[in-house]
Amino acid sequence: IISSGINAEYGDFKFFVMGRVIRGQRKGAGGIFKAHTKHRKGPARLRPVDYAERRGYIRGVVKDIIHDPGRGAPLAQVSFRDMYSHKRVKQLFIAAEGMHTGQFLYCGKKAKLQVGNILPLESMPEGTIVCNLEEKCGDRGRLARASGNYATVVAHNTDTKRTEV
């Protein structure tokens, strides 16, 4: 078979374009350029906001700090009591600098301002350094999630109920 000017298949015969295969064509084919996702630990997200977080707080325990391949930041495996059934619920959070195993972690409106705790921006003073922020209410964390990355609370506007970060 003589090579033609197009890259196409006709039955059992393959016609190839002569010339160099560029990097973009090689990446499109997959192979070694695919992401290795086999050993990933799972999505790292904040808890869905429930009644306990809106009105008070809920306590969790950091069980383990693990490495997730393909991610720079370490993950914290946190165990919470399930409010509705007699069991424990495990969540994966992005570990803030200073978190350790065995640490109690509080999530909610009335939680104290400490390393690792999760609370709304409105209850944080200006100048607080935060990570893993929600961009929109309920999206479970979108901003400042990479290792070493952070955001600073700049100002609160009580008229529009907006916080500048």
Helix/strand/pairing class, anyone?
A: mainly beta
Number of helices: 2
Number of separate strands: 10
Mean pLDDT: 89
Main sheet record? 4 strands, antiparallel
How big a fraction of the residues is strand?
Answer: 25-35%
Which spans have pLDDT < 50 for at least 5 consecutive residues?
Answer: none
Principal-axes geometry comes out as globular
Question: What is the H-and-E element order?
Answer: EEHHEEEEEEEE
Which radius of gyration do the C-alpha atoms yield? Answer: 24 Å
| Euclidean distance between termini CA atoms | 64 Å
Helix percent reads under 10%
Q: Biggest sheet, strands in spatial order? A: 5-4-3-6
Structure description:
Helix content is 7%, strand content 27%. The chain is mainly β. A 4-stranded antiparallel β-sheet has the order 5-4-3-6. A two-stranded antiparallel sheet has the order 1-2. A two-stranded antiparallel sheet has the order 7-8. The chain starts with 7 loop residues before the first strand and ends with a strand.
In short:
With 165 residues, the chain is mainly beta. Helix content is 7%, strand content 27%. The termini are far apart.
Summarize the helices and strands and which ones pair or pack.
Elements: E1 8-10, E2 13-15, H1 23-28, H2 51-55, E3 57-66, E4 75-81, E5 88-94, E6 104-108, E7 129-130, E8 151-152, E9 155-157, E10 162-164
